[in-house]
Amino acid sequence: RKEVEQDPGPFNVPEGATVAFNCTYSNSASQSFFWYRQDCRKEPKLLMSVYSSGNEDGRFTAQLNRASQYISLLIRDSKLSDSATYLCVVIRRAGNMLTFGGGTRLMVKP
Amino acid sequence: SAVISQKPSRDICQRGTSLTIQCQVDSQVTMMFWYRQQPGQSLTLIATANQGSEATYESGFVIDKFPISRPNLTFSTLTVSNMSPEDSSIYLCSVEGGTVYEQYFGPGTRLTVT
């Protein structure tokens, strides 16, 4: 079993739709969680951190469920520019190294 | 945020040869990281390079195959040695941001081995 798992998609949604991705992690000692965004043929960039209490940044909301070991990303009012691959990233307590999920591809259509 | 450049941006190499990838950062950083992203896959950490010490390799990666240099706080190189088609991948360097949790990535080097 992979340490960090994501549905690869693609998720095809119309503009204005609300879409949600989940990411599950296997190591209960995981300490920190993030969402990165990677555009086609570009490098990954940090989108947002995921806090225990959940956090919101404009149209994006991230949630953490430690009991079920998953994090989620909700995108409201999708824009064409949201089309990208969204990478779930987990950090274990030991080593502080980033472990990337396989990514979920989102395609927002007009 | 840091500005990171990589050279070359892409290359096509013959099997059995070696390629050295350069990573340059516009500010001094303690830790630099090298990742591999194989076609259609996510990122896998190859090694962590600290200036003045040997690189630390992740499971499945060895120094003989991926030697790394870190001569100063703004520069690092990764060599892919004795290449085979399985080494075809994008290689990215990254540096830590405000914390090691936030990393800034270079644009990547797209390597094709024939």
Question: Can you describe this structure?
Answer:
The complex is a heterodimer of chains A (110) and B (114). Chain A has strands at 4-6, 11-14, 19-25, 30-38, 44-50, 55-57, 60-65, 70-75, 84-92, 98-100, 104-109. By secondary structure, chain A is mostly beta strands. In chain A, a hairpin with a 5-residue loop joins strand 4 and strand 5 (44-50). The N and C termini of chain A lie far apart (37 Å). Chain B is mainly beta. Chain B is built from no helices and eleven strands. In chain B, strands 2, 4, 5, 6, 9, 10 and 11 form a seven-stranded mixed sheet that branches. Chain B has a four-stranded antiparallel sheet with strand order 1-3-8-7, with no helix packed on it. Chain B starts with a strand and ends with a strand. The chains are: A mainly beta (110), B mainly beta (114). At the A-B interface, strand 5 and strand 10 of A face strand 5 and strand 10 of B.
List keywords for this structure.
heterodimer, A: 110 residues, mainly beta, five-stranded antiparallel β-sheet, 11 strands, globular, B: 114 residues, seven-stranded mixed β-sheet, four-stranded antiparallel β-sheet, 0% helix
